[in-house]
Design goal:
Rossmann fold, about 210 residues, six-stranded parallel beta sheet, about 45% helix
């Protein structure tokens, strides 16, 4: 029997794209233009990884203020909702008794808030957040820990990801990654690491039907 692990932002939930204008807003509050463009580098990373990118590209940035301003923008503008097809796939898996995990770079308070908003917090066999492992994506730690807490073998796991960092992490974990791009298309070299790429995440139902 296979198991499934979801990334959250940009994969299960449509919560990734708001980070681009949020980072633009936060950067502009400190005189930096187009800080949102850095999101293409940090998608999938935990806070430590994204902070390192901020320091590299905006060495004068006050990170604490930047984070606070970005959160302010997100709180005022975000409406949490599923990505197209995600709810359908999630319930398909749950109804068939397939173990489901969540591995996200987002901190636990925001993760639990978002999942409660769409009514699925209790549907996961394990939820691991970015600050709860030593190394964030593209390291495999978060996927391996999710599989461990689910009590499953990594090689039996399918991972759904929208980011380059997430795909690399899943590949390093020895898992089969299904890519579903969000706002940033996958590069060809990243596609080579995938089990497959889908336009709509619900297309995976046909794949899983053949494995049943």
């Amino acid at each position: 029997m296979f198991s499934v692990i979801f990334d959250m932002d940009g994969t299960l939930l449509d919560t990734q794209r708001i980070c681009f204008p949020a980072w633009d807003y936060a950067g502009e509050r400190q005189g930096f233009k187009n800080a949102g463009s850095l999101m293409t580098l940090v998608c999938g990373m935990n806070i430590n990884g994204s902070n390192a990118i901020l320091r590299e590209h905006l060495p004068q940035v006050d990170i604490e203020k930047f984070r606070a301003d970005a959160r302010e923008y997100i709180v005022n503008n975000l409406k949490v909702r599923f990505k197209d097809g995600a709810k359908e796939l999630l319930y398909y898996l749950k109804e068939r008794g397939i173990k489901i995990g969540l591995a996200t770079g987002t901190a636990r308070p925001s993760t639990e808030h978002h999942l409660k908003e769409v009514g699925v917090l209790g549907m996961f066999d394990a939820i691991i957040c970015g600050t709860e492992v030593e190394n964030g994506k593209p390291a495999p730690d978060i996927f391996l820990e999710t599989a461990r807490q689910m009590g499953v073998n990594p090689k039996d796991c399918f991972v759904f990801e929208d980011s380059k960092n997430g795909v690399i992490a899943a590949y390093k974990a020895g898992m089969k990654c299904i890519g579903v791009a969000d706002v940033v298309p996958f590069e060809d070299k990243v596609k080579d690491l995938m089990y497959c790429e889908l336009e709509n995440i619900a297309e995976a139902i046909e794949i899983f039907e053949k494995l049943a």
